[in-house]
Structures are given as C-alpha cells and as structure tokens.
Write a structure and sequence with these properties.
453 residues; alpha+beta; 2 domains; 14 helices; globular
C-alpha cells in the first residue's frame, strides 16, 4: 500500500525572487561542469548552490561542498529567501514542452507529495534500473549535511481512468502560484493545494497502487539509507517521523505528456577495434544493411535513420551504428530466434529490451567489452539527441555510436513488476523534472500528518 502524505514545503519567496527561471536547474546528475558554472552565474540564489556545490582546494570533513550547501540552505531560510508553508500541502505542476523527437507540443501533469519509503523487497515502490554506489554516497553526504530533500524522485502510477487527475484538476481553478518559461523552451506552472478533502481523495486513490520509479533511483536508495541511519539514532520511534518519507513527483502512466527518449550509446575509444571482423561477427545474429550518409543530406539530417528505427520498433530489435571516418551508417536488424542468444541468465522481460540485445550481443560478445568497461563514464557517453550524437562521432570526439529505439513504457512496467532491473541508462524520461520548485526539510522530531483513509 502506497502511503501518500502532504508536507510543509519550502519554496522561493515570490516577493524576493521574482524570476524563478533564473533560480531553478535540472537534476544535478545531468549538469556538466560548464552548465554548473552557468547556473552559478545566472543568479546568486540559484539552486545549484544547494544541489551541486563547487569543490575547493583544501576541502575537509568540516568544510566541503556538502557542508557549504547546508550553510547556504540555512542562510536562505533565515533571510526568507526560502519560506516554509504553514500547513501540510501537496503541489500540482504542469509542464509544457516540445519533445526531443520533434513532435507537437505536449503537457505533462505531475503531483509533488511525500511517499513513505519502503523496504528493498517491497512490491509497493518498484525500481527498474541499476544504480552505482558513488552516486548514492554523494547524495547521502548532502542529505546528512543539510537534513533536507532538494530534488524530487520522478515516479509513475497506473490510473487509466484518471481519477487522481480529476481530483487535482478540481483544485486548480485559481491562477498558479508559479509560472515561468525555462531556457530550454519549456513552460512551468505550480499550484499549492491545502484542501484536506482533496488531499485525502488523492491519497486514497493512490493507496492501493504500486509506484514505479522513472528517474532518481539512486536518490530513492539514498533516502532509504538515510532513513535507516535515523532509525538507528532514534530507536523505537513512531513510524510517521519525517525521515520515513521522501518527496516524489508523481505522474500518471497514461498521461499524454509522458515521454521516453532513446539513450544512444557513444564510445570514446575502443583500443584494437577493427570494423570488418566486428561486422562479420555480428552476421550470426543480425541482418546488416547500410544507409549512406548522403541519404541524410550534407547536414546529416537523422530523419532517415529515425524512420528506419521506428519502422522496426514493434517487430524486432533494430539499431544503427556509426564509426568515425566511415561514409555510411550500418543498420543491424536482429534475426528471428536470436533473442535467446542474449543469455540464459536473463528473464523473458529483459530479453525483449533493445538495450540488452545491444549490451549482450554487440558490446560484450562481438566487441569483447566487460561490464566494467560499459560502466566507465570516461569511455561511455549516453545521448538522447541523435543529431548531436552523429556530430560527436563526425568530429572525432567519439570513435563510434550505437543508435536505438526508446524503451517502451509497457516494458518498464513489465520489468519493474517482475522485480527485475535494466542496465544503466535504459530509459530517458523527458523532460527531466526541474529542481527548485519546492524543497522538503527533514526534522527528525516532526511527525507527518498522513490522511486517514
């Protein structure tokens, strides 16, 4: 049973901060060093100072990027840059954007609320991707220093009848408290809901549902680790303490704005790689054809490759391959009956995934890469923009790129429902949820007011 609750969120003081587009940022783990500096320069109150503080020479256990973020957080509270709601609330958001695939404008609706943290083997909150310890340790240090949750976990629920959406729509007759356009062209609005009847209806509607984590797996695991450490400190505490909960941005799986983009793989350098033997090895599993670069015109317009991938997305695993210096893109189409060659250790839902076919047959067996190689962020890069990925290979910044279709929502659901996990970066839910709309302070002596159902 999913336990959904309101909370006294912290938001920017709208009387002090009049342009929210300058103080918000994407999740910390998609921000490059150049972008980090850009957000620092955008505004002295930009959330980057909380979620991705700068390292300094001479950092110590008592003065480091985490302690400095915590100091900034407390300072902003004391100076009323951030103000806390006087009553438990839930927050409704709308996000208007153009999808990365060039399609028409879409709107994605979301709900920000507290969700009770579950145990690893729970069938209530279901992950679908593997995480890495370095990311968990980094976020845990920040959470321990600040006693706060700065970013929401992006999660999904099933609601084909849109009952939750109906309750939420009835609560937003007034103009939004937040409304701004972000630099990527997206538009954002947010309403604060304190009506206890509506909050109870939403909580009740989600009570019997499973929650699927879309993005932020490591942050959810970090919240559980933080909760466990607080449980150890405060033995025999009631189950409704604030550290038992985590903030989530919840979206209906059937929301028309829910968008998954592909996560193409780029490899910077593969020592000893030879194209001809590689293609010959692949012939045992794939039908191989070629798409001349001329077919994509001088600017390498990727529409021809996108159309080919899309045409084959429902029948088999299809992928494109571009190698630096070649005047063509190779097209790989998995032969009938070859899916089982991915490995006897894989469960059927995983064998259906293009990312597993790419990983097992192409990267590991044909190229001889290890799992450690594929987890090496210095060697591997993930990019959802096909044109950008092509350009990175053309320039020589990367040796090669593999292009795949996006993972389908039904596949995410099937994998998570069977308590399985996908390889890293199997999904790219777009757009990312912005950080800075609302924060949650974790007071170990504060109790969460869970609606009675």
């Amino acid at each position: 049973m999913a336990i959904i609750a309101p909370f006294k969120g912290l938001t920017y003081n709208f009387e002090t901060v009049d342009d929210l587009s300058k103080v918000v940022a994407p999740p910390y783990d998609v921000i490059s060093e150049d972008e980090q500096e850009g957000f620092y320069q955008a505004d002295p109150f930009n959330v980057i100072r909380l979620i991705l503080g700068k390292k300094k020479i001479g950092d110590s256990d008592w003065d480091n990027r985490y302690t400095r973020s915590a100091d900034v957080f407390r300072q902003w509270e004391s100076e009323d840059i951030l103000v806390r709601s006087d009553r438990p609330s839930i927050y409704i958001t709308s996000l208007t954007f153009h999808p990365g695939d060039g399609g028409p404008q879409r709107i994605r609706w979301g709900l920000i609320a507290l969700v009770r943290i579950e145990e690893e083997d729970s069938d209530v909150i279901l992950p679908h991707e593997r995480t890495f310890s370095a990311h968990r340790e980094d976020r845990l240090k920040l959470m321990k220093a600040s006693s706060a949750q700065f970013s929401q976990i992006f999660a999904l629920y099933e609601d084909s009848e849109n009952r939750v959406g109906g309750f939420l729509k009835s609560a937003i007759e007034a103009p939004p408290e937040i409304s701004f356009d972000f630099k990527d062209g997206s538009s954002h609005q947010m309403w604060t809901v304190q009506n206890q009847s509506i909050i109870r209806q939403v909580s009740e509607a989600l009570h019997e549902k499973s929650i699927f984590i879309a993005d932020g797996h490591h942050r959810y695991e970090t919240s559980r680790n933080y909760r466990n450490s607080m449980r150890a400190r405060y033995e025999h505490s009631p189950s409704d303490r604030s550290y038992e909960y985590v903030t989530m941005y919840l979206t209906n799986m059937d929301d028309p704005g829910l968008t998954i983009l592909p996560s193409h793989r780029l490899i910077k350098d593969c020592a000893g790689f030879q194209l001809a033997p590689f293609l010959e090895e692949l012939k045992q599993w794939f039908e191989i054809s070629e798409l001349p670069l001329e077919a994509m015109n001088r600017e390498h317009d990727p529409r021809a490759l996108k159309e080919w991938l899309d045409e084959n997305s429902d029948t088999t695993s299809a992928m494109g391959f571009r190698h630096h210096g070649e005047d063509k893109i190779y097209l790989f189409l998995l032969k009938p009956g070859m899916r089982d060659k991915t490995g006897e250790d894989l469960e059927p839902p995983l064998k259906k995934l293009d990312v597993l076919v790419l990983s097992r047959l192409v990267l590991q067996r044909a190229m001889g890469l290890s799992k450690a190689d594929m987890d090496n962020e210095e060697k591997f890069h993930y990019e959802s923009d096909m044109l950008k990925a092509l350009s990175m290979v053309d320039s020589g910044a990367y040796q090669m790129a593999f292009f795949i279709n996006p993972t389908k929502m039904k596949q995410v659901k099937e994998v998570a429902s069977n308590s399985l996990v996908m390889p890293r970066k199997s999904t790219y839910f777009y757009p990312k949820t912005l950080t800075g709309l609302v924060f949650n302070r974790i007071d170990p002596h504060e109790f969460i007011q869970v609606p009675k159902i």
